[in-house]
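Q: Here's a chain of 448 amino acids. Please give me its 3D structure as tokens.
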Amino acid sequence: MSGDNRHIGSEWRIAGLLQWPYRFLGPLPGLKEMNIVCWGLFVGWLVTRFFFPLWLQFRHMPGSIHILPDDFIYFYGIGHIAYRYPLTRLYDFSLQLKVFNEIFHSQDSTYGPSPYPPFVALFFSMFARVPFILAFFLWAVVSLTLYLVGIGVVLREVFPRERLKVSLSFCFALAFSPFLRNTLLNGQIATVAVCSVGLAISEERHSRPFVSGLALSILAYKPTLLLLLIPMLLLTRRFRTFCGFITGVSILGLTATSFAGVQIWTAYAQFLGAFGRIAGLNGQSSLLLWQYIDLRAFILSACGAGGMPERIVFITVLSMIAAWIAVLLWKSVAIGRTGQYLAWAVTLTWTLLLNVYVPVYDSILLSLAAILTLGALRDLKWSAAAGWVIALLAFICVASWETDAIVVNHGGQILSLLLAVFGVIQIYLLQRAICHDMAHAAPSCVTE
């Protein structure tokens, strides 16, 4: 086995605790063999679990296949309102219900409100010009492209000219259930966030901070995703990126205002307030909380709303974590590229956890956080830590397909716990990276 493969092998051991059985299986597989196995398993799963059953159903019952991406009904619906009605009526909930039911009338459930800003409706008004199924397939192509672009530009920066690692990263990103099942097949738009953040990171690496901020401003489509990202920009002194972000948001806002007038924002704010009551920001929720991965939703779904003492303890713990992250982000500026990678990675992971409304599909941002974390560990040459992280990420990918069954049996979203473990590991790695870089000034820190 070549020296490169021996180094690769060390990354894929779990800190020496699980040694490869050389006596029985021979040399440790390299990345080429791992690519063949992983891609083979993924393609085999798609064929046996999706394409083959679909083909059998179509062959024996050709009229029985109904494609219904539930979430895309909302986006196609608000696009239909923007295309057919005055945009000022976008946040008329009775009109939303009427349009959604015209697209598909469900006997088993009712539609909720669609709280997206007006520029999202303007974008999807282009899709509303064609029939629903055709619009869905067009969006699926766009969505897949956005996902691959967002991940690809980050991989190009973190693992340049390392094709086997890039290939494996794409394999696991595509096989992640929140992407394939909850986003692509359901018609969600979380891939917009992946592309936005991916381009922002790539532009930053090319020393174009203002353009990075412009790319990041696309996340204004879902303000909750900015809850930690904006403080991160300020704490890490990315001021030109912040200016680019403000400029981009202003352009989006002015575009919507030019179509609907200033009053659209008053209607939007009132609509968000009503949606917040539905989402349960006061501790009670009418949503299916197991479909959300933020820690607040996990605690509510697993333990109930609880009393005031429990809430105080929960808020205190989360506040301490947020404060710890803030201190590390402030210090991360001093450790160069590694600090940049880990600052983005920690922020992305904890954005999913320290939040108030994060559905499962938004967890596809984990793909970027994982790539950046592994890139930082590669730069630091911490192979043992990389082994642990790779093992955890592989487990998260596999477990993501069994979350529904686990929720039914145990009443809590297992992805929340797994992401919390990954997030704590990232915080610890950032802490050690800072200490490692500043060991001469802080000899009490533990270094690698």
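Q: Can you summarize the key feature?
A: Confidence is low (pLDDT under 50) at residues 1-18.
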